[in-house]
Automatic annotation (TrEMBL):
Protein name (record): Methionine ABC transporter ATP-binding protein
InterPro entries assigned: AAA+_ATPase, ABC_transporter-like_ATP-bd, ABC_transporter-like_CS, ABC_transpr_LolD-like, ACT-like_dom_sf, MetN_ABC, NIL_domain, P-loop_NTPase
Classification via Gene3D superfamilies: 3.30.70.260, P-loop containing nucleotide triphosphate hydrolases
UniProt subunit comment: Homodimer. Forms a membrane-associated complex with FtsX.
Residue intervals of the ABC transporter domain: 4-243
Region called Disordered, residue ranges: 346-373
Classification via PANTHER family: IMPORT ATP-BINDING PROTEIN, OLIGOPEPTIDE TRANSPORT ATP-BINDING PROTEIN AMIE
Origin species: Bifidobacterium moraviense
Biased composition range(s): Basic and acidic residues: 363-373
GO cellular component, one term: plasma membrane
GO biological process: amino acid transport
Length: 373
């Protein structure tokens, strides 16, 4: 049985005279023990969707099931119990600044109904788990970003949740600290068996830790599957655009007009086997010239995927024969349009690379309050 099931969930906001369909007819399941990811550009509806899971956001329509039980209309003590079963961490940590690290954790224990006599033991246990036992009497202001997120994780785990929701939990951290937090979350997933639902717009985070991933665009899930499959052979334009931006796959547009005539193609291949020897063989055999315009190998978990963009020029028949041969050696083959390549493409969400725009701050503020659609 799935731990979480969303059935045809929609969330609509009415703001002044505007209607915003933040989530549209999303159905998906999250299995016990997996790390399930949601990626997408800014405004895609990721935060809204994840807030439905702990009912901080009520769906406008559709149902939410937890361990097979319909909890869409949960209220009062049932709702409190559900919230105990689901921990939540954000980009902005949301620690209480005028009390110590230890007290921050204790507030969660108090809210979870723990006996006061157990608070100290449990707080130390949680802080030890996240590697911060020596910071129990420290105030949040003197902690680094990574340490703050560790405290937030300890607090989120206080009531032994089965599920941990992470909304851009690493987006405010530098590379090294991100790695540490991801390691910690993976350990929590493995050792405590906690199911994790993780939202991010950072593909390097996604490819490293997600078992499965859903790609959201404009309120809908446009692609869903095993992380490697989705990212290595993206089917939807949004997924392709996310992957391309992440891998930095691009032919500099200003270069395109000066390129010799010929067909530009993108080749995707699995494994780290180099394609260069094949390229030169094919070029020789068919009497064409093949220029490599872009090359990249990237690791998704343990798997490597390689992407090459090449320009094949020569006589029409020879070019076609060469392309056919290249096609038979790769799993992804796409002819690229020169005119499109020459345009400086500025896809949506380009200003959100660092995840620190005003929208994100808004989301955090919304984080603690329940809103009714
Ligand atoms: N409480 C709200 N009231 C009105 N509109 C909202 C509310 N929350 C979200 N929205 C709108 O719903 C859409 C989806 O927002 P959401 O925060 O879920 O996107 P997101 O994918 O998390 O984006 P980001 O990557 O920037 O965090 C946006 O258009 C947003 O402005
Ligand atoms: Mg968000």
């Amino acid at each position: 049985m799935s731990v979480i099931e969303l059935r045809d969930v929609s969330v609509t906001f009415h703001e002044r005279r505007q209607t915003i369909e933040a989530v549209k007819h999303v159905s998906l399941t999250v299995e016990k023990g997996e790390i399930f990811g949601i990626v997408g550009f800014s405004g895609a509806g990721k935060s809204t969707l994840v807030r439905v899971i702990n009912l901080l956001q009520r769906p406008t329509s559709g149902r939410l099931l937890l361990d097979g039980a319909d909890i869409t209309d949960a209220k009062g003590s049932q709702l409190r119990d559900i919230r105990k079963r689901i921990g939540f961490i954000f980009q902005g940590f949301n620690l209480i600044s005028n009390v110590t690290v230890g007290r921050n954790v204790q507030f969660a224990l108090k809210a979870g109904g723990w006996e006061k006599s157990d608070w100290d033991r449990r707080t130390r246990e949680l802080l030890r788990l996240v590697g911060l036992e020596n910071k129990i009497d420290t105030y949040p202001s003197s902690l680094s970003g990574g340490q703050k997120q560790r405290v937030a994780i300890a607090r989120a785990l206080a009531n032994k949740p089965e599920i941990l929701l992470c909304d851009e939990a690493t987006s405010a951290l530098d590379l090294e600290t991100t790695e540490e937090i991801l390691d910690l979350l993976q350990r929590i997933n493995r050792e405590l068996g906690i199911t994790i639902v993780f939202i991010t717009h950072q593909l390097d985070v996604a490819k490293q830790v997600f078992d499965r991933v859903a790609v959201m665009e404009n309120g809908s899930v446009v692609e869903l599957g095993d992380t490697f499959d989705v990212f290595s052979a993206p089917k939807h334009a949004t997924t392709r655009s996310l992957v391309e931006r992440y891998l930095g796959i691009a032919v500099p547009p200003q270069l395109v007009p000066s390129l010799p005539a010929g067909q530009i193609v993108e080749l995707r291949y699995k494994g780290d086997a180099a394609l260069e020897p094949l390229i030169s063989e094919v070029a020789k055999r068919h009497g064409v010239s093949i220029n490599v315009l872009h090359a990249n190998v990237s690791y998704f978990g343990p798997h490597a995927i390689g992407i090459l963009i090449v320009l094949v020029s020569g006589g029409d028949a020879a070019v076609n024969a060469a392309l056919d041969e290249l096609k038979s050696h790769v799993f992804g083959f796409r002819k690229l349009d020169r005119t499109a390549l020459a345009q400086i493409h500025d896809a949506d969400g380009a200003d959100n690379e660092d995840g620190t725009d005003a929208d994100d701050a808004g989301n955090e503020n919304r984080g603690e309050k329940e809103t009714n659609a």
